[in-house]
Amino acid sequence: MMNMKFKNRTKMSYTFLRIVTKISELDRKIRYYGTDRPLYEAEIHMIKSIKENEGIHVTGLADMLGVTKGAVSQIIMKLEHKGMIIKDTDPRNLSRLVLKLTSKGETAYLHHEKLHQKYDELFYAVLENATEENKAFLKSFLNSLDEQIDTFGKEEHI
Predict the structure, then answer these.
(1) 5, 20, 48, 90: which could join 96 in a potential S-S bond, CB 3.0 to 4.6 Å?
(2) What is the pTM of this model?
(3) CA 64 to CA 66: how far, in whole Å?
């Protein structure tokens, strides 16, 4: 009888799940992103959201990220303590505070972008010799899988 571990390694779904797990572990890794303070995954993604949505406030971030204002506020407080962001009065609504990156937050953002650029380079290096037809298939497959996983996640499984 075939070794079960070997048999599972030959299934595409298992290979894909191993890759997703490895990427998830890499993404969850605590990094400094060019600063003197360690940042967790949620913190660096909050920095990214603030940078890419200039003038955003806590409620806007919560709505955009699909989380509670309390969750955003907790992360914001940690990022303020780490010197990554500041709260400033919104010139259009003086009763509301907008979030801005400090120079340290900008550094973290840039290093995070460089990390994603390295992921892109890794991805394209693997596809370097692929035909355009194969690349188009892979893109279509991944988009379809993305949609199917959304549906799969809403269903109850054993």
Answers:
(1) 90
(2) 0.80
(3) 6
